[in-house]
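Sample 1 of the test manifest.
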Amino acid sequence: MMETHKLEFATKGENDILNITEHIQNVIEHSDAHDGSVNLFLQSTTSSLTIIEWEPGILNDFRNAMEKIAAKSGIYEHELAWHDGNGHSHVRSGILGVSLSIPFAKRKLMLGEWQQIVLAEFDVRPRKRTVIMQIHG
Amino acid sequence: MMETHKLEFATKGENDILNITEHIQNVIEHSDAHDGSVNLFLQSTTSSLTIIEWEPGILNDFRNAMEKIAAKSGIYEHELAWHDGNGHSHVRSGILGVSLSIPFAKRKLMLGEWQQIVLAEFDVRPRKRTVIMQIHG
Amino acid sequence: MMETHKLEFATKGENDILNITEHIQNVIEHSDAHDGSVNLFLQSTTSSLTIIEWEPGILNDFRNAMEKIAAKSGIYEHELAWHDGNGHSHVRSGILGVSLSIPFAKRKLMLGEWQQIVLAEFDVRPRKRTVIMQIHG
């Protein structure tokens, strides 16, 4: 069987990181599928999905690393043409990615003890974000 | 149902980025599956798949970021041993990745407004590239 | 059909890279599925899965690039709070990722000639690692 759900999230803009694990787990608990995979797909070019431990220090370390990969203060051709201030956001999203696939069993995500599913906002202003969640059971 | 397709692409070598969205969409339109996920897998160790906005400035910003992560002019042990000039290409591909999973509904990719599927060539010469496309519906 | 397997690996700690391709191929050969996708999910926040050519120079070049992205000698807020020495390991894992999806046909992984599936250990000490392997055929 295959089920598709659409989840909506609101971010506070740059450097906001949302823990969306409970939202995903909640949909799975009410799914018709007992075991399978959930594919998450974020419809965005200036934010990303990843898995990380939910510890404030790690979240800041992750933010600092993304700043090093594509600094907000860097020079971006996108910026020179469009002046919307998010050249670095596009680069970060393209490198980190927007899709994840996670197994579940007995309607429970098979995450490691410390793994949390996060949506990392890289854009410079608050955004509404849509995650397509597809369950293959 | 499950369908497997093989798509072939030709790149012009280093820094070429192909927009393959229409090719993927076209196969889905003629698939037996109405709704599902498409898994893309690039059979390569010196190029990658990702999703990005198709804007010339962003593509150059992305190229610059990959150059920062693994500079062409850097020193690579692979290069010292094999002299094929693509040590940086292997590193970039290993970091960026070769697989994507994208949902579709009513035979249409569920991409965000600005999302395009791209094949980024990191190798130093023109290459033929194969993408395995698997539809799970 | 859908099958779930659990594979266990032991790493020697930081910078160890395991080639797990044969382990995955072996499970597929004994699967009930003839064709399909295998989803791999590593239950960890301080190590990653990726695909790379298995050549000693490339492995070292990859290690060097990860060190550049998140240096072991860098300053990490996680480290200042927890003193377990693996702030950089969390950042690397969050950036590189823990999931892969690979197609197979006639019970053989459809990998490119040089592609190998690897588990990259970023943590500072030897670890036991679990990979959930889900076959969708």
